[in-house]
Write a structure and sequence with these properties.
The protein is of the alpha/beta class and 372 residues long. It is 35% helix and 20% strand. Helix 7 (221-232) links the parallel strand 7 (209-215) and strand 8. It is globular, with a radius of gyration of 19 Å. The chain starts with a helix and ends with a helix.
């Protein structure tokens, strides 16, 4: 259901120095802090959403901007039940982060537009399951609203959130374990800009990012290419993998809404609101030596095609191989220029079918479908 609602929403469109946040006029009941964290699959979070901890009902994270940075842990939950956030002191959050890490990199997941805390928590855990992640899982909750009129509201809040994303990544990269940085849709812009800020202000820390993964990035295409090259120019720049498609209806609509194509849309011609079939890939030349464009068009799943990273077993398996540095074998084949048929360095196409990590990824997809 989340993919359908996301599609309809978009189709209806016509412990660092942090900036001060203006408090909203409502939802001001203090949230109690807890000490005990029980569920092992619960996801740690830093939240920029104002919480609602009014007496007599379960705590929740609203769509409003927060009056302060909050840390906590959120169980996965199933469907619309469970998954109540528990708030931790920053010191207790740090302790939990260290305890869950086990010397492994931290997976930092930044969600996109039209995602609530439940969906974002489920997606973060689905990624962790598909890559068999042994370290801590952290998500950044930022204020994005559900509804057809809220796209640009979310764009504004994404930009407002950026300094906090920068600070969170800097905090995690300061640890020796390293970071897997993962951004989806609008969250990919937060992730990419945070990587740039880290690399340009603290170059030595950039090498502690093991991988940058951008799934269906809702970023202006030419802007994304420039930003990727900024990252690549920094010594020790990590590998960057961009998952894109010609079948992403959300990004096709964002193209129409913004007037310019998005980084995760491989189409060379705007195909219209309902789509007129696949169009030739638009990355005819490599972006940078550390950047790989992965075309998921042939393995895309769902009505919108915007969540292949968690709903397409082939895409989820590819992410697993990227993170674990496993050979792709026959799962990828080179992309070719549509005009000459010449192979394009730095761009590959995913092939349907079994490959390393495929069974694990399929199980993760089935699990997500069972709790969604």
């Amino acid at each position: 259901m989340r993919i359908v609602s996301s599609l309809l929403a978009v189709l209806a469109l016509g412990a660092c120095a942090l900036p001060t946040i203006e408090a909203p006029s409502a939802i001001t009941t203090p949230c109690p802090l807890v000490e005990d964290v029980i569920e092992s699959e619960a996801v740690l979070f830093m939240s920029m959403r104002q919480p609602d901890c009014a007496p007599g009902k379960s705590a929740r994270l609203t769509d409003l901007r927060a009056d302060a940075v909050r840390f906590g842990v959120r169980p996965v939950g199933a469907h619309d039940n469970g998954g109540v956030p528990a708030f931790l002191s920053y010191q207790r959050w740090e302790e939990e982060l260290a305890a869950r890490g086990g010397g492994n990199p931290t997976l930092l997941y930044i969600h996109g537009f039209n995602n609530n805390a439940r969906v974002s928590t489920q997606d973060a855990r689905a990624i962790a399951r598909s890559i068999d992640h042994k370290g801590a899982v952290v998500t950044l909750f930022w204020p994005t609203l559900t509804g057809p009129e809220t796209y640009y509201w979310s764009v504004t809040n994404r930009d407002w959130t950026q300094p906090y994303a920068d600070a969170l990544l800097r905090n995690l990269a300061a640890r020796k374990e390293g970071v897997i940085l993962f951004g989806h849709s609008m969250g990919a812009r937060l992730a990419l800009d945070a990587a740039i800020a880290l690399g340009e202000r603290h170059p030595a820390m950039l090498a502690r990012i093991d991988q940058v993964i951008l799934a269906s990035p809702d970023i202006d295409r030419s802007d994304m290419i420039g930003k990727l090259r900024r990252v690549a120019a920094i010594e020790g720049a990590p590998p960057v993998t961009v998952y894109a498609s010609t079948r992403d209806k959300i990004l096709q609509t964002a193209w129409l809404t913004n007037g310019y194509p998005r980084g995760g849309d491989l189409g060379s011609v705007y195909p219209g609101l309902l789509g007129n079939g696949p169009t030739p890939p638009l990355y005819p030349e490599p972006i940078a030596a550390n950047v790989t464009i992965v075309d998921t068009s042939d393995v895309s799943q769902g009505l919108s095609g915007h969540a292949d990273y968690v709903y397409s077993p082939e895409t989820a398996a590819d992410i697993c191989r990227v993170v674990k540095k496993i050979d792709h074998e026959e799962a990828r084949f080179p992309a070719k220029r549509p005009d000459s048929g010449q192979q394009v360095a730095g761009s590959v196409v995913l092939r349907q079918g079994n490959a390393p990590c495929f069974d694990r990824a399929s199980n993760a997809v089935a699990w997500l479908e069972s709790v969604d």
